[in-house]
Amino acid sequence: MRAMSDAVTHVSPASADARMSQVILVTAVATIGGFLFGFDSGVINGTVEGLKVAFNSEDIGTGFNVASMLLGCAVGAALAGTLSDAFGRRTMMLVAAVFFIISAWGSGVAHSSAEFIVYRVIGGLAVGAASVMSPAYISEVAPAQHRGRLSSIQQVAIITGLFIAFLSNYVISQSSGSALNIWAFGFEAWRWMFWIELIPAFIFLFALLLIPESPRFLVAKGGTDKARAVLARLSNPEAADLKVQEIKNSLNSDHKPSISDAFGGGAVFKPIVWVGIGLATFQQLVGINIIFYYGAVLWQAVGFSESDALLTNVISGAVSILAVFIALALIDRIGRKPLLWVGSIGMAVTLAVVAFCFANAVTIDGAVSLPGSYGLIALLAANAYVIFFNASWGPVMWVALGEMFPNQVRGAGLAVSGFFQWVSNFAITMTFPIMLATKGFGLTGAYGFYAVCAFISIFFVQRFVRETKGLELEEMQG
Question: Alpha carbon of 235 to those of 122, 138, 404: distances in Å?
Fold first, then answer.
């Protein structure tokens, strides 16, 4: 490490700036996958009523139409880590880009729940792969001192994708009068909401052709010269040989990476993988995707019009983007663990407030509303919750998963953690409309459950999460 530091001091500022620009450009391309992850997750928010009418589905059927993508996400995340060890990080992102295109088109042309679910599962495969490959790729090309900020851009991209999905849904709905109405060329507005995704999906596909493969993957596959060239382009030419040797030493200390690297001993998984599973699962158990997937339904349930509910989603999306910049500013200064810990406390409190407000909801002529100031308090608390999540668990979980595993375990650890993340997402998403329709449970019970999970996550972070700020990936221990 001393030799690398000495080498850095002899590099001209101009060339260092040029290389940093290359790193930022490569990171920006990789995070388009995060943008599509967010857009594909958020676009469903404005189409729920359209799906109900078009496919004549009830609460459970609607829940599965919304959650079906997440089954593909679980499989995509589980396979992507292992396949990327065999074929490369960039290659798997290219496959994901093609799947995004197929899903966006197919979801809009579907004429039955079965057909729609097939295309959403294909999209899920793409989202699952992008969710683990983009942060893994970024962590493997970014300098250690900037890795936290650069990896956090993934969350900026995810939230921006959500925001653009909410905004396009709102604009299309306003233009057509409702997601159920015809908007253009004889097709319903909700179908166009899916087709908008084709634009960023094609951009992602062609932009990926312009970036290099991960140098750590290249070394693992014997492409030492290619890896050295990539490192010289993205970091420090004088230190490229040293970094290649460090990667070689890390990989040569054990066998060829495989999915079995995640398993170990009587506890099924290695301890570091259990921590990854915990981070991935808690990120979903706090209920953030209920805001993203069902925000329009949620606010309409307490008296908002369709237009106002969709506008509230746009506001939440904008607030989310601003909140992620808090994490960007702090993650490489104070570290990953403090952000997670503070975020858990903030989410537990704000979710409890939302649950309390919904406990005071009243039903008049079959319509639910929040009396007095409870509606405003619930709206403010929900947005405060979104701020706490996106300033902490939103970006930091992905940063942690991308960097916490040793080189030997990274692909397998990401695969297993990603699988659990999406299974948890599926469970939360599938059960929400059932909770909403269950007498005596409803919104109060749902948000009370999410608050309890946020409270438990405080102790999980304190006890099990290790700080990785400033460490090289070759220094990570299993």
Answer: 36, 13, 21
